[in-house]
Amino acid sequence: MTLYLDCNATTPLDPRVQAEIVRCFETEPGNASSPHEFGQRARHLVHQARERIAQVVGARRHEILFTSGATESNNLALLGLAEHGQNTARRHIVSTRIEHKAILEPLAMLRQRGFEITLVPPQPTGQVSADAVLAAVRPDTLLVSVMHVNNETGVLQPIEAIADGLTDRAVYLHVDAAQGFGKDLTALRHPRIDLISISSHKIHGPVGVGALVARRPGGRLPPLQPLLHGGGQEMGLRPGTLPVALICGFGLAAELAWQENAARLAVCRRLREVVLAGLAPLRPAIHGDLSLAIPNVVNVSLPGWDGETVVERLEGIAAVATGSACTSVCATASHVLAAMRIPPEQLDGAIRLSWCHLTLEQQLRETLHRMCEVLKMPEETCEPAVLPLHPGPLPLR
Fold it and tell me: In the chain, where are the structural domains located?
C-alpha cells in the first residue's frame, strides 16, 4: 500500500468534515443570497463558517471573503490593489524570491503594467530577513507580500517582525498563509496584517474553497477592485453563488485545526523524528533550517539520485513530491532552493516529504524502511533506527 506523504500539496479530508459536507448537501439546498427560509438557513451557515475561520486569525466575521482557494485570494489581493496603486502613484511592491507561483506570476503581470517589483532573497536557512524586507520599502511602496510558511521547505517567515516594522508606514501587508493557516497560530493574529490568503484543502477541508481575510482597521476595507463581475456577492469583490456545503466543511476544518492545534503539532514533531531517523542511512542533505520550520515537512536531496527518478522508484511505496505540486508539470529546478543557493548537484535531486497528524507511525516506519532498501547505494545498509513507538495519530471524535 502506497503511503501518502504529500500533505503540503493537499491534506486528507477529515471524516468529521466530510460528514458535515454531506449533511449540508443533503439537507441545505438553499442559495445564501435568496430571501426565503432556505436562503436564510444557508446564509446562517455561511456566517457561522466565517466566524470559525475568523477566530483562527483574530479577525471578525465580516472580514472573511470566500474564494476558490489561496491562489485566487492571492490574485485578488495583488491585482485588486493595482488600480489604487496607479491612482496614488504608489507602483512599487516588495516580495521575496521564495514565494509560490501564485504570487510571483501576478507580480509579473503587475510588472508588465508598469509596477516595480523588488524580490528579497532568502538566507541559506530558507528564511528571509525581516530587516531586508523592511529596508526595501520606499515612499512609493504600495504593498509588501511575504508568505507565512514556505511550501517547499516548511520554513516560517518572520511575519510578526515585518508587521511590527510596518506599524507606522502607509503600506499594505499581505501574507500568503496557505501552508501556515491552522498550524502556526500566533503570527497571523497580528493586527497589522491587512490581507491573508488561505485554502481549505491544506487543513483537511474540501478542495475548491478558500478565503481572503481583509482586515478593516478603522472600519475601512482595503481598496480592492474585483477580478470578476456580476452578482455582487462577497461585498462585490468576489461575485458568484457561494458553495454552501464546501464553506461549511471549510469552517469546521478551521475550527478543528484551532482546537486541536497543540496535539496535532506534537504528533507531527514525533513523525518528523521518525522520518529523519528513517532517512539517515541514505545520507540526505536537508534543505532549510528545521528549527525554523513547521514540523510536518522536510525537503531533502539524496546523494546519487535525481528527484524524478526517486518519485518513479517509490511508486507503490510512497507518494512524495519534487518541489511544489502546483508547478510539477514543469521539469525545472526549484526556484526556492535555487534562491537559497543550494548547490547545483543537489537541486535536481530535491524531494519533499510532508505528513499530517493522521499519518500512522507504524506505516511510516515500514515505508521508510522500504524506501531505504529501494534507494540505497551498494555500500549502504538500511537498518531501521530504533525509536520507541508513539501511540499514533489523534483519535477522531
Answer: 3-11+261-375, 15-259
Where the chain has pLDDT below 50, the residues are 324-325, 327-329, 391-397
pLDDT in tens, 27-59: 999 999 999 999 999 999 999 999 999 999 999
Q: Is 330 a catalytic residue?
A: no
Question: Which CATH superfamily includes the segment(s) 3-11+261-375?
Answer: Aspartate Aminotransferase, domain 1 (3.90.1150.10)
Q: Which residues contact 143 (CB under 8 A, 6 or more apart)?
A: 78, 81, 85, 93, 94, 171, 172, 173, 174
- Give phi and psi for 241, each to the nearest 5: -65, 130
What is the distance between the alpha carbons of residues 215 and 221, in angstroms, rounded to a whole number? 7
Question: Which positions ≥6 away from 6 have C-beta within 8 Å?
Answer: 319, 320, 321, 325, 352, 354
Please give the model's pTM, rounded to 2 decimal places: 0.93
Rounded Cα–Cα distance for residues 132 and 120 (Å): 7
Residues in the chain: 397
CATH architecture under which domain 15-259 falls: 3-Layer(aba) Sandwich (3.40)
Spatial separation of the C-alpha atoms in residues 373 and 380, rounded to whole Å: 9
Q: Which of 7, 248, 268, 326 is catalytic?
A: 326
